[in-house]
From TrEMBL:
<keyword id="KW-0175">Coiled coil</keyword>
<protein>
    <submittedName>
        <fullName>Transcriptional regulator</fullName>
    </submittedName>
</protein>
<feature type="region of interest" description="Disordered">
    <location>
        <begin position="134"/>
        <end position="155"/>
    </location>
</feature>
<feature type="domain" description="HTH merR-type">
    <location>
        <begin position="7"/>
        <end position="75"/>
    </location>
</feature>
<dbReference type="InterPro" id="IPR047057">
    <property type="entry name" value="MerR_fam"/>
</dbReference>
<dbReference type="Pfam" id="PF13411">
    <property type="entry name" value="MerR_1"/>
</dbReference>
<feature type="coiled-coil region">
    <location>
        <begin position="72"/>
        <end position="99"/>
    </location>
</feature>
<keyword id="KW-0238">DNA-binding</keyword>
<dbReference type="InterPro" id="IPR000551">
    <property type="entry name" value="MerR-type_HTH_dom"/>
</dbReference>
<dbReference type="InterPro" id="IPR009061">
    <property type="entry name" value="DNA-bd_dom_put_sf"/>
</dbReference>
C-alpha cells in the first residue's frame, strides 16, 4: 500500500484526521480534499488525503480561509508533480548519456585546428572559436552572393 492508495472509508478517514464525517463531505463538495470513489460511489480516502485533511485542519485553526487553503494544496500538488517530472527527466538524461559513450565535444583553435574536449577539460581563454554561417544558394538571407567557394566572413 502506498500513500496514494484509496483504502479508507469516510468514517475511518474522519477518525484519522480528527474531523467529523460531515466536514469531510463538505470539503469534498467544495473540491478542497477530493477522495476517489468506488464503483458504487462511496468515498475512499488515501493516506495522502488524510495528510491533506490534517493540514487543512491546522491551517484553518490558524485562521487561513478555505479558498486560500485550496490554493495552497493545489500549489503543493503542482510542486509534487513537477518534482516527479524532474526526476523522470534526470533519469532519461542519465540513460541517454550512458547510451552515447562516443559523443564528444569539439573546439576550434585560433589557427583552425579542431580538437576534442573532454567533459572535465576547460578551454584556454586564448583559444578562438570562429563560427561560420553556411553559404546559401540564391535566395540567401545573409546577403552573401559571391557565388564562389570562398568561405563567408565570420560573424
Amino acid at each position: 500500500m502506498d500513500a496514494e492508495s484509496p483504502v479508507f472509508a469516510i468514517a475511518v478517514a474522519a477518525e484519522l484526521s480528527g474531523m467529523h464525517p460531515q466536514t469531510l463531505r463538505q470539503y469534498d463538495r467544495i473540491g478542497l480534499v477530493v477522495p476517489r470513489r468506488t464503483r458504487g460511489g462511496s468515498r475512499r480516502y488515501s493516506m495522502r488525503d488524510i495528510e491533506q485533511l490534517r493540514e487543512v485542519a491546522q491551517l484553518s485553526s490558524e485562521g487561513m480561509s478555505l479558498p486560500a487553503i485550496a490554493r495552497l494544496l493545489d500549489l503543493e500538488d503542482e510542486v509534487r508533480m513537477l518534482r516527479r517530472r524532474v526526476t523522470e527527466l534526470e533519469g532519461a538524461l542519465r540513460a541517454e548519456r550512458e547510451n552515447r559513450p562516443g559523443v564528444r565535444v569539439f573546439a576550434a583553435g585560433s589557427t583552425g585546428q579542431v580538437f576534442s574536449v573532454g567533459s572535465a577539460r576547460r578551454i584556454r581563454r586564448s583559444t578562438e572559436v570562429v563560427l561560420w554561417r553556411p553559404r546559401m544558394v540564391s535566395g540567401d538571407d545573409t546577403g552573401d552572393e559571391r557565388g564562389d567557394d570562398t568561405p563567408p566572413t565570420p560573424r
